[in-house]
Fold:
Amino acid sequence: MRAEHIEGSFTRLLEQQTAKIPSDVFLFASLCAMAFSLGAELAQRDRASRFVGMWVGPLLIMGVYNKMVKTFGAR
Structure:
């Protein structure tokens, strides 16, 4: 690797800690957010429904990041 592509110590620490979290946690959290959002929408709590519904995308992206760190390792 070239010197400008080397990650810092904080990034390495973050990747090591992230790799300890099971990937299922992020999938389960996103499914819970979807279910809560649907329930809030059916209960006509529009603001809460939309607020929690916006969590689904970032949770799934964090799950993909987690899987990538486990697959490729913290470098």
